[in-house]
Amino acid sequence: MSRGSAGAGWPPRLTRREGGHLLELCPSASDVTALESPCLARIMRPDQDPLEVPIAAWRMEADELLLEGASHGWAIKARWTPRNGGCRFLEVALEVTWTGDEPVEAGLRLPFRIPNAPAPAWLIPGAFYRENRPAGCPRPFPRHDPGADGSGAGLVSDRWSFRADRASVGAVFAWGATACIGLAAEEVGPLGLSGLGLAGRGEDASIWLDMPYREEPVRYTGSPEPQPPVLTYARWEPGRPVRVAYQLYLGAPDPHAYDPFLRALYRYRRLTAPLAPWTSPERAADLAAHGLLRWHFRRMESANGSLAILAETAGFDREAGDGRCGSVDRDNMHVAWVSGTPWAAALLRFGRLRADEIATAAGIAVLDTIVSGGLSPSGTFWGEWRADSGWGGGWNPSGWLHARTVSEATLFLLRAIRDERAHGHAHPAWEAATRSSLAFAVS
Predict the structure, then answer these.
(1) CA–CA dist 104, 46 (Å, integer)
(2) Mean pLDDT (10-residue bins), the chain, 443 residues
(3) pLDDT tens digits along 175-232
(4) Helices (H) and strands (E) in the chain, counts
(5) Per the CB 3.0–4.6 Å rule, which of 42, 362, 385, 440 could disulfide with 50?
(6) DSSP code per residue over 380-441
(7) Cα–Cα distance for residue pair 90/415, rounded to 1 Å
(8) Which residues make Cβ contacts (< 8 Å) with residue 427, sequence separation at least 6?
(9) Dist CA 295 CA 315 (whole Å)
């Protein structure tokens, strides 16, 4: 068995230690990040304890790391190949063979552990964020608590496993004091629908992939009452190898360390998974306009009379707005960025193209609000309107405006002016405000 040295991120340094192997990489010139690989895989069998297939041997072959191991009739070969799609990560290919005499039902769990992670942070994109549910929130949904017993009572546990199709992308991340690790796989593979898991209790944190998926310790279905777990298995034929693949990312403990890996996954998957829209652009525009009008468009009363806004947030769970967690809506409006001019201009364009008087009127009313609020002392737009304090700079120190926000407001108001002129409509106040903002930028 040979080991590579940890230089410039690759090859890795793999060392045997109690309970598994320690993998170290250098994602940058100064950082060394590490995680533990307790085994090549855990074999999950019905009504039996998980069976670990340990790493028995490894070697470097060119720039690839080859590992193998066997246990109780299961033989696994692994090939770790470095990739650099905007960030360094490993493409892992497993060949798993059941060598027994009769077919069996089993699943694979592919675990990795971060040492020194007593208070881990989590991310399953679109499904699980940090502890996921604040301790005081009265609305039950899955929450991670390192002190929980793992039963899932009250939808609280120190470990969770989910179906991959609950996430926006089949990936799971964990942060410790010294590293961020990420695992990703295609949502559907040779063994069926995959799963994502996390656990944190004591000093270490773990994440894993399940093939096929498992949902435990309980299953969340949107109801406050936990549902029984779901454990799925695949059928293994003797002597027939099954090949699965996944990606392993190891980065520094920066909170945004996940970003380059997710972007690399998106680029990577575009090659094999072209866009397949389930609806037409026209139908999507209908739905977007409906959402803006139904949930975000508001007519508000202010010290200077009535005005129209597009509220920045509207909670999808209306039952949670009982006051104990605060309002689920935020009746504030930035002039651009997360609300305001870009969306009002789009709603106005939609209204003109569809001859929809309600959408047209709403778009005009919001743009009128932004213009009639007056200009800031700099001559450009204010950054934000708030229900409790009126116009101001937004999420900035007092006296400051955010250039990106006011420049987007100027750009999209200019586009709305152009669109309206094409339909024979003039808005002198919009033009005056746009000219003033542009004059400020030029000066």
Answers:
(1) 10
(2) 39 74 65 79 95 92 91 96 84 97 97 88 95 86 92 95 95 92 95 97 91 97 93 97 95 90 90 87 96 95 85 75 58 92 98 97 97 88 91 87 94 97 97 96 93
(3) 998 889 999 999 999 999 999 999 998 888 999 999 999 999 999 998 889 999 999 9
(4) 6, 30
(5) 42
(6) SB-SEEETTTEEE--SS-TT---HHHHHHHHHHHHHHHHHHHHTT---HHHHHHHHHHHHHH
(7) 45
(8) 364, 367, 416, 417, 420
(9) 9
Token pair belonging to 267: 């680029």
Nearest Cα residue to 382 out of 337, 348, 327: 337
Beta strands per DSSP E along 45-158: 51-53, 57-61, 64-71, 74-84, 88-98, 104-114, 121-124, 128-129, 143-144, 156-157
Q: Could you tell me the two tokens for 118?
A: 């007593």
Where does residue 141 rank: exposed (0-12), middle (13-18), buried (19+ CB within 10 A)? middle
The candidate with the shortest Cα–Cα distance to 250, out of 301, 325, 352, 181, is 181
Name the burial class of residue 389, with classes exposed (0-12), middle (13-18) and buried (19+) by CB atoms within 10 angstroms of its CB. exposed
